[in-house]
Here is the input.
Amino acid sequence: MSDATQQPKVLDRFTIATAEKFDGQIVKLQGWVYNKRSSGKIKFLVMRDGSGLMQGILFKGECSEKAFEEFEKLTQESSIRVTGKIRKEPRSVGGFEMGIQEIEVVQISEPYPISPKDHGVEFLMENRHLWIRSQKQWAALRVRAEIIHTIQEFFDNNGFVRFDSPILTPSACEGTSTLFSTPYFDEKAYLTQSGQLYAEVGAMAFGRVYTFGPTFRAEKSKTRKHLTEFWMVEPEVAFADLNDNMDLGEKFIEYVVQTVVSRRAKELQILERDLKKLEVIKGPFPRISYDEALKVLEKRGVAVPWGEDFGAPHETALGEEFGKPVFMHHMPAQIKAFYFKQTDSVGGPGVVGHGKYALGCDLIAPDGYGEVIGGGQREENYEVLRSRIIEHELNVEDYNWYLDLRRYGSVPHSGFGLGLERTVAWITGVEHIRETVPFPRMLNTLRP
Ligand code: 4AD
Ligand code: MG
Here is the structure.
């Protein structure tokens, strides 16, 4: 293998994504063989370099004899350095092509297990470490990275301070039934289900914060929306009530969807995403109470008895009814976590004590992608919150630090969590959440 010493420094090098800057120049493309074909005396080499695909053309006369010989040896995914001239070609992928002069083989790939023919999902999942080189997988992960960037940009530009919460925690946030535990020296620790409780600490110190990181749930259900390890971004704002929280969620979602559509149209096209469906994702989003949602569900033939949580068919029906993301608020307190502020009547102020409804708000995405945001207003009264912890059979000792927030300058506050992978699934339009993260973790999926 020859080294790359004659190459420009990394940041100055040619990449397919920046081909426009190199129009008319002779460059070196370092990458892999995507596929190749011959048509008489002309040979076509589709190359990928991680930033995109580009077609290279070998003409007798323009390239060396040696390049023709090397071309014959190339197999799918062989690694190569190819020298040639960049020129505009509107009919080609990416709008540019390369007139190839030289081909340097770095390694001839062994027969590649993933070919353009259809493979079963099980096989593809076992080969996830290779599968992500395929166009659609690559595009979905590229969009994921853009979504992450855009999320951070939104909060950073709006006065939020990033506030990291721990992954190893002593206690539950979202109920004890989905906790992963691990020995922690002489005690037991749990993988965090949500950074929220720590984000509340941050909100009291910085006013507005967001946590962003992996969260874990021992979900035993096999659905297209559940992972056991997923990323969540969780803003938390002091002096914000339930309506403020929905206002923030609406601005945030509109910004993320519209920015990603404008920056990653090419990748979304590879994914065959209908962009018209995303271009309409602009506020205001409908806001309905849980009680109103029950009426909609009954009308649509998927009635739910009061007090029960919604499943996939119900979320899909709500999406169909509105064709836009819809906020549902004021859920039955009995199905919500211990930290929600409660109220007796929808639209009324929060009560001190216990009420029928939790001041929660979930955002349900259209097209069956389900709940992408879950959040609400937090209980800020010390006595009420303490009794709620006991009611939920949690160990008060573990929450003393959290209760302190209600003893030292307690204020009304709200926040939410956005599930990153569900958001990626919705924006990219991929069918299953396993394609939204490089290495999905699910029931029965721990490798590679
Ligand atoms: O509704 P959840 O459980 O809310 C919380 O964890 C709050 N503590 C967040 C907060 O207020 N700071 O989860 C929030 C979001 C869901 O709406 C969903 O998008 C995603 O996290 N989510 C999952 N995504 C993938 N796989 C799972 N198993 C998920 N569970 C929740
Ligand atoms: Mg939820």
Remarks:
- The domain at 3-107 is CATH 2.40.50.140 (OB fold (Dihydrolipoamide Acetyltransferase, E2P)).
- The first strand starts at residue 26 and ends at 39.
- The chain has two domains: 3-107, 126-436.
